[in-house]
Amino acid sequence: MQFLDDYSGIFVRYDLRRERGEAKAVVADDVIMQQVIECVVDGDTDNIESVVKKALETKDPMDVISALVKGMNEVSRLWAEGVYYLPQTILSSDAMLAGIEICEVKMGKALDKKGVVITHTAEGDIHDLGQKIVNALLRANGYEVIDLGKDVPVDDVISAVKKHKPAMLTGTALMTTTMTAFEKISKRLAGEGMALPFVCGGGAVSEEYVTGFDMGIWGKDASQAPLMASDAVSGKNWRQMREKYNS
Amino acid sequence: MQFLDDYSGIFVRYDLRRERGEAKAVVADDVIMQQVIECVVDGDTDNIESVVKKALETKDPMDVISALVKGMNEVSRLWAEGVYYLPQTILSSDAMLAGIEICEVKMGKALDKKGVVITHTAEGDIHDLGQKIVNALLRANGYEVIDLGKDVPVDDVISAVKKHKPAMLTGTALMTTTMTAFEKISKRLAGEGMALPFVCGGGAVSEEYVTGFDMGIWGKDASQAPLMASDAVSGKNWRQMREKYNS
Amino acid sequence: MAKYTSMAYQSAEEMVFGTAKFPVKYGRDFEVGAGFVYPELVPHPRPGSEETKKSLVREYEKMVNDVLERCVQLGFPGIQVELEHVYQMTRNPDWGGEIAATTKRLMEDYHRKYGLKSAIRATIADYRKPDEENMRSSSALGNMLATFEASAAGGADNLSIESMGGKEISDYAIVRQDIRGVLFGIGVLGSRDVEFLWKQIVEIAARHGATPGGETDCAQANVAMFMAGGYLDKSVPHTFAALCRAIAAGRTLVAYEQGARGPTKDCGYEDPIIKSIAGVPISMEGKTCACAHADMLGNLVAAVCDLWSNEAVEYHDMFGGTTAAVFTEILGYDVALMNTAIKMGKEKDLRDIMINSDKYRDTHGFILSPDNAYEIGKAIVTNADSYYTRSRAAAIKAAELMMSDQRLALSEFEKNTLDTMYKTLLGLPDKEEDFIGECIPVYQKLVKGFKPSNYGL
Amino acid sequence: MAKYTSMAYQSAEEMVFGTAKFPVKYGRDFEVGAGFVYPELVPHPRPGSEETKKSLVREYEKMVNDVLERCVQLGFPGIQVELEHVYQMTRNPDWGGEIAATTKRLMEDYHRKYGLKSAIRATIADYRKPDEENMRSSSALGNMLATFEASAAGGADNLSIESMGGKEISDYAIVRQDIRGVLFGIGVLGSRDVEFLWKQIVEIAARHGATPGGETDCAQANVAMFMAGGYLDKSVPHTFAALCRAIAAGRTLVAYEQGARGPTKDCGYEDPIIKSIAGVPISMEGKTCACAHADMLGNLVAAVCDLWSNEAVEYHDMFGGTTAAVFTEILGYDVALMNTAIKMGKEKDLRDIMINSDKYRDTHGFILSPDNAYEIGKAIVTNADSYYTRSRAAAIKAAELMMSDQRLALSEFEKNTLDTMYKTLLGLPDKEEDFIGECIPVYQKLVKGFKPSNYGL
Ligand code: B12
Ligand code: B12
Known about the structure:
The complex is a heterotetramer, with 2 copies of chain A and 2 copies of chain C. Chain A is of the alpha/beta class. Chain A has 11 helices and 5 strands. Chain A has helices spanning 14-17, 31-41, 48-58, 61-80, 86-107, 129-140, 154-164, 176-191, 207-210, 225-233, 238-245, and strands spanning 116-121, 144-147, 168-172, 198-201, 216-218. In chain A, helix 2 (31-41) runs antiparallel to helix 3 (48-58) and helix 7 (154-164) packs across helix 8 (176-191). Chain C is an alpha/beta fold. Chain C is built from 16 helices and 13 strands. In chain C, the strands form 4 sheets. In chain C, strands 8-7-6-5-3-10-9 form a 7-stranded parallel sheet. Chain C has a two-stranded antiparallel sheet with strand order 1-2. In chain C, a hairpin with a 2-residue loop joins strand 12 and strand 13 (321-322). The longest helix of chain C has 30 residues, at 179-208. Classes of the chains: A alpha/beta, C alpha/beta. Chains in contact: A-C, A-D, B-C, B-D, C-D. At the C-D interface, helix 1, strand 11, helix 10 and helix 11 of C face helix 1, strand 11, helix 10 and helix 11 of D. Bound molecules: cobalamin (2 copies). One cobalamin sits between chains B (124-131, 133-134, 170, 172, 174-177, 199, 201-204, 219, 221-222, 224-225) and C (44, 84-87, 123, 125-127, 162, 164, 167, 171, 218-219, 222-223, 226-227, 292-293, 311-312). One cobalamin (B12) sits between chains A (124-131, 133-134, 170, 172, 174-177, 199, 201-204, 219, 221-222, 224-225) and D (44, 84-87, 123, 125-127, 162, 164, 167, 171, 218-219, 222-223, 226-227, 292-293, 311-312).
């Protein structure tokens, strides 16, 4: 086989040209809090437990939690600037959540969540990876996620919404032949006099399709989910959200 | 340049494999009528005039006309069987129509047509070749064609339909950005309480699109036009015709 | 009027994709025919988006962005986007102008951010109606010229058109297998209209520092090719369609004699002949324009191309992204293959593989195979007395080539058609004035609306 | 369980498109890997058509007819159509069966009328849910096996599947860059599930005289590749995705050890490695599957293919015909180019051009370049003690190849990821039982619903 040494004119490695955001910059008032933050920023799920426990010996649980969250905010920045990739973000959120759990035990009560979001993958569809990412990112941002899983019958979605009264509902579908369930859900909800932001995403799902039925808001990327959830929690209705995200 | 001698495995000349229908077989009661028929079958526009005039010296115009038509039927068979191509068909129809005209002069009155069809190419669209073929084939089959031409405003189509009360309306569009006029026409006609078979064709026009509005019937190939016209004239409504041609 | 009397290339063997005798440079670091092949992506707006200027501009913004983003995602070095005007963009000159400006803005962003090379072709819609209006003074013509201005001002690098001259005659003749009519409609009338139009386009381009790009006989030769279709179609004989193509070369060539510099218009299948004569870089389309129409020379037609196009794809979603992105990807890899061959010094191997794929698949591939295209080119430059003589010579040469190569299998019907057409061609007058004199009365009688004055006759 | 311990080819140089060590013959005069490449067209039904059996069968009837007609129109010698089941076709075995029968009827018509060669691949949908049900006894499994029966009885020539074993673990691990988890989910659990499934598929195929076709690690390696995406994506590092691919080769290989004979499943990008070991004909997809998803090795991936596929295209109208016809045309010309090269004795030139187009474009193209694929294959057959050892060896080899070739440019981030993964891989236990013992408790804790019993553990 003959191989070239010079590939110019065939392809350009644009990925190498891109400027990187500045590296991690974490600031804390003292050493132990610094360690807590670093555990989150580094997604160090192995040591987070011991470090947080150590911190709790001297610090108030709420302060430790805000350190954990501070670390997570730094991670979000690094991801946004392209320094971090998705896995770093998810590992950090794993670490943060583990840390928070320990603090909650110490406090004897669970931290109250920013709001409730129900997620599911369409009936007949087992492509749930996008949904799993959405779950992780929502949890990382302090939302209570009710995960209905994949291949969820329309009925189950409706009754879950009735039961939990979430601020937002999400659906993932990767097949055009299963996404049709979203429209049914929208109709059923309307029929029951319910209206809430229903964010739909997934490879096969197009903006064209989702904005074609009531409540539908198209989600292009899982990373949008937290911001969407906060809009929903802060009372934006689906029309306002569609206006914001789909136009 | 290097050239191969053997192309097997690269492509197969399926066109050479196809069995041809049997060749022309024309039968007439006598010599002159035989000539009339042959002029049509051969699309001999140069001699049709003299031959028909000669025939008219001894024959009744109506008989000559039926000979002309007989020739044309033979042509249709040859086309259907793949012996003839479109040009042969059009030339034959040119010849037949020229012959009929002469007979009509002799009779002192025009032959009454099978029915009236209005054809047009959509507003903003100058792709009228398909329409021209449709015109030729309809005329060849004895229909009166009112040719509105190309780039025809919706209004003009509506008023033409009001004025001529055709058995069928046709539209041709080769651009998806102009075919949208067909839907407008359908709505306008309905608005004016009119309903007739509206056959739409042309490269860009899909069955999906045309069957999406009232009166719309999708025409795949110009050769369908005569049969569609006879259905329309014999009283089939657009729903029955859509059922027949689009499913 | 000055005509080409010699070939740009010494031989067909010299011709290959990626290199043209006279490269053209414009846009953002974009040079065509200078050693590499680039993709040319042609997106078409969705029905409905043409209703307002705002919605149409927005549609183009989305489409062009998808194209440029996919290029960067996959590492394609550069791309040309064709703005092939739908009626509304030419009918309203400011629409065409603003869409060109929007496209340019996006391209500049990607060039700044990533160094992506790019260029814009604006193809104005010729919506004059030869049989209904005065082609040399109609309001349609006025709008067309105004739109050329607006597009160039807006940022179009390449000005092109698919012109209509002679179409009223060729439409009549093609469906009647009337080769004389085709020669008159394409070879004579078409050529004269191209001359008339391109004088003005070249002048406008010069004024705006844009490049006068390409012409194509889509209006006539593509109708014939298109109707000839595939092995199962029975509309127009394939040998006849091939003759129409040879004749078209003489017509399209006029644009370059008037100052057009290419890259030529993608749908001009006659361009390999043009390149052999004029040496301009050519844009071609084949297998990857299946989204727009089928042809029977999907690989061969790329053999000597400088840009590689999809002709047109309507904007819709597919599993892999929008059609604009999807076809950018396919074209991008197609040209990556050609460019790799160039870098490896194997470009002529790949060229010959492309040629052998289709040279004997059908008549169009046969006459456009570079060796035959070159022969037809020679017939054109050695019969340069008039538009008529060279078009006729091209047709006669094409016929002789088809008749003399045993490897080109033809059905009885196709053979007979070819023989008849060949005899007819030989029987036609030798002088243009005689031919014109013979045709005018005939077609005035046969074709309603035909006005010789539209062609300065 | 018997495992491959030697390579089917003496060297990578020996491998080229169109020829496989063990050709497969089935369908209507259809032979794969015997000297020519054929297109494999995969049409997908429009949303809504899946609602009733009648409408879905009708949809397939239209799609398949468009495919076969375009082949005859353009002269393509033969084609394979994949019926890639949507959920409903497997959920209701008789649907899948009737659609196979309808497809066969149409193919027989075209074969009788024109001699068009053809074959049918039925790919059953594996809709078992590893984290929710018992994968070795669920009703989903029952339906799947029943649908294999029905499809074979209906006329499917090739039975294939994209199986799900280990997905619950790999889904967790891929988005966390946990290479150990990937090795466990793909290399160990995936391999065990493939063994379990293919024993039964092979048996069913034998009973119906159908050919057990191919497996693919779409469920895992394609998720990684897909998320790694292009130059602008930041979801999964490209070096990590390449390691997932190398590991997947060990998993997919199991199907052929169980008796599958190919042609393999198009979306198994690991197939060049499979071909180097097993010598089965492989179906690949690249630039012309842009309609289904983007990849960064559009040309290279065709270098050693025997079938060339579009992965999947939803049925819609385009200017040039329906998507089914359009992609048949593009694929048809793609393979015509390869077959012409073969006839001209230039197939290795074209192969090398394809390879150089993408070998250094991205990590996936790099490790699947035949020379590197062959090296990874050797690592697999020389570490055949267990599914684990060979998958790990494949990953280590892939990492070493990426680290040692200076022409493969990597960003700092990608380099660091690769180093870390490489160290982790080296640090893992040498024996499968130790590795399994280490992983089970860890992932039972981390992944809700993970049941070792699903894998006979
Ligand atoms: C991996 C994969 C699989 C895996 C699934 C693994 C898993 N856990 O999901 C397996 C092997 C199981 C699989 C199976 C099948 N698959 Co599959 N699969 C794919 C593939 C290659 C990648 C999908 C993927 O994981 N992408 C990565 C994830 C992260 O992307 P995503 O889900 O789109 O999510 C992103 C965004 O959409 C967004 N998002 C998603 N959801 C949400 C929600 C919110 C709120 C927001 C804000 C954002 C958001 O965020 C994510 C990015 O951050 C696609 C190819 C493609 N073009 O999509 C085919 C594809 C989806 N599969 C397809 C098919 C046909 C199948 C099968 C039927 C094949 C078969 N016969 O076996 C079966 C399905 C059976 C069934 N009943 O579901 C087709 C669907 C065709 C169609 N009709 O639409 C595709 C498109 C492949 C193709 N081109 O043919 N598949
Ligand atoms: C030739 C051609 C032209 C010629 C037209 C010549 C003429 N007299 O029609 C010319 C050069 C003038 C032309 C111009 C343009 N064209 Co144009 N053109 C074509 C081309 C290559 C072939 C069309 C053709 O003549 N086919 C042969 C005829 C016979 O087929 P047909 O009309 O479809 O008819 C058949 C069937 O549809 C059916 N049928 C048709 N009507 C009816 C009616 C009934 C009742 C029945 C039963 C059947 C029926 O019967 C016929 C077969 O028997 C197509 C390519 C394509 N894919 O279609 C592009 C195409 C139609 N053109 C296109 C474009 C964009 C243009 C221009 C805008 C380009 C430009 N910027 O200049 C301008 C249009 C300006 C305007 N306002 O209209 C695009 C349209 C894209 C879109 N948005 O839909 C196409 C699809 C090319 C492409 N792929 O981009 N074009």
